[in-house]
């Protein structure tokens, strides 16, 4: 859903679309040659962008666009002890407002920063003023959070802007004691159970298993009432022992060492409503990040347990997909 303010102008131009059909005198016997030829053609065509032939006034020619360059670095004192790390896999957007890309606002997508040093020119920008906001900031060490360039970047036709080195400091309170998953805005790394044989599709056997129908019923079947999933740090494997979507169980509560519900360490507000489970997705669209303190008096010598309870259970699609969980120690003195 696109959110526009009163009187706000926004336009998106799609295309042109290039279609390339190749052929072989050997009746298609060398499939690899077809593929290599198609990739070579794609590279050649990409070098011609932006095209000069479209007549639509909404399609800006090369002379109407500008170029922005810079280097995005990630600085996490606890995860990247060798210093700043290039954000080599960050997606970049140019929202008009902070977090606009996350909420379906007017965002213009830009390339992925896929150079090894986190540096790549963002070419052919037409919009005169925009904010740089890499989404799903990545690096050789995946990170939580979003980087937002605090000042507006002004791009002029034919102009070039060098932002220099931009440093993102991800949210963190202390060193990592344990973690589950990868902070990449998907639940793909967690365990996806096999589908009920009655519903199983051969299209998703061996890949994209989360697209199978009816997986929302599998959690209750694998973990009936009174026998909920237990993950033991240091023994369990989240790719095998932590189901990707927790559904149909009685805002979520977090308890430490069996405290009763009224003593929950943290309760979330109501959130979500993206229908990701019903539409066979692997991420919920809008990601919610929660941080809560665990007081020292709640912990004890030896084994400690943390319980996460989904309290809203009046429908099969009211569930939670986890992207990443982390327990941090106290900050250094």
Automatic annotation (TrEMBL):
<dbReference type="InterPro" id="IPR051850">
    <property type="entry name" value="Polysacch_Lyase_4"/>
</dbReference>
<protein>
    <recommendedName>
        <fullName>Rhamnogalacturonan lyase domain-containing protein</fullName>
    </recommendedName>
</protein>
<feature type="domain" description="Rhamnogalacturonan lyase">
    <location>
        <begin position="176"/>
        <end position="249"/>
    </location>
</feature>
<feature type="domain" description="Rhamnogalacturonan lyase">
    <location>
        <begin position="253"/>
        <end position="327"/>
    </location>
</feature>
<dbReference type="Pfam" id="PF14683">
    <property type="entry name" value="CBM-like"/>
</dbReference>
<dbReference type="InterPro" id="IPR008979">
    <property type="entry name" value="Galactose-bd-like_sf"/>
</dbReference>
<dbReference type="InterPro" id="IPR029411">
    <property type="entry name" value="RG-lyase_III"/>
</dbReference>
């Amino acid at each position: 859903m696109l959110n526009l303010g009163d009187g706000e102008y926004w336009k998106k131009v799609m295309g042109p679309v290039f279609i390339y059909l190749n052929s072989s005198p050997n009746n298609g016997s060398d499939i690899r040659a077809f593929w290599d030829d198609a990739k070579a053609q794609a590279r050649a065509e990409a070098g011609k962008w932006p095209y000069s032939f479209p007549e639509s006034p909404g399609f800006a020619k090369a002379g109407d666009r500008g170029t922005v360059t810079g280097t995005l670095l990630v600085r996490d004192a606890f995860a990247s002890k060798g210093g700043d790390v290039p954000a080599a896999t960050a997606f970049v957007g140019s929202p008009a407002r902070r977090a606009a890309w996350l909420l379906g606002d007017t965002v213009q997508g830009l390339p992925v920063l896929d150079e090894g040093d986190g540096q790549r020119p963002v070419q052919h920008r037409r919009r005169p003023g925009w904010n740089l906001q890499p989404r799903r900031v990545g690096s050789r060490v995946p990170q939580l959070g979003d980087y937002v360039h605090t000042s507006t970047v002004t791009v002029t036709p034919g102009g070039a802007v060098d932002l220099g080195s931009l440093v993102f400091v991800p949210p963190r309170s202390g060193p990592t004691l344990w973690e589950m998953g990868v902070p990449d805005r998907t639940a793909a790394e967690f365990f996806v159970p096999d589908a009920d044989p009655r519903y199983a599709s051969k299209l998703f056997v061996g890949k994209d298993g989360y697209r199978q129908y009816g997986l929302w019923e599998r959690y209750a079947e694998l973990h009936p009432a009174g026998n909920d999933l237990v993950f033991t740090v240091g023994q369990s494997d989240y790719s095998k022992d932590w189901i990707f979507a927790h559904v149909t169980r009685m805002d979520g509560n977090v308890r430490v060492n069996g405290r009763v519900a009224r003593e929950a360490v943290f309760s979330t507000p109501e959130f979500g409503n993206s229908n990701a489970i019903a539409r066979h997705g692997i991420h919920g669209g809008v990601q919610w990040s929660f941080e809560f303190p665990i007081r020292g008096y709640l912990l004890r010598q030896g084994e400690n347990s943390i319980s996460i309870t989904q309290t809203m259970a009046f429908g099969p699609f009211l569930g939670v997909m986890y992207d990443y969980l982390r327990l941090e120690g106290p900050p250094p003195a």
